[in-house]
Amino acid sequence: MLAVSTPQSGEHNDLDEIAAVFDELIGILKAANIESKWLFLNADPGFDRAAFREQCCEDKIEANIKSNPRNNKTTQTDEPFFDELLYKRRTKIEHANAWMDSFKALLVRFETRDFTWMDLQWLSFITLFCRKLKV
Question: Which of 24, 37, 65, 100 is positioned for an S-S bond with 43, CB 3.0–4.6 A?
Fold first, then answer.
């Protein structure tokens, strides 16, 4: 069973309730019989916190989190492994998600049937692909 989100005020940061949200995500993976071992998490510097990295480590998730320059607690020698190429690919995924959000029917999800919603997904992919073609 999925938990229902509740609106929050704007006086919080990305990591305000990350432990609870992360536990919920791990629970959803377990309910779907998806093992979290060897999955990777590609996150921006806003998620660079020791507690969050430890939580990823406990669930055996490879955390590829860019170091936050404002977080002066880590030194060059104890900084965790970071894959720059994998992080750059994150930008492409973020852009694809933003393009998908430009389709109101997908963003709000007016459709109640899964197959209709999936057809709209395919239509949006085709539309985005056609926009990229140089004709």
Answer: 65
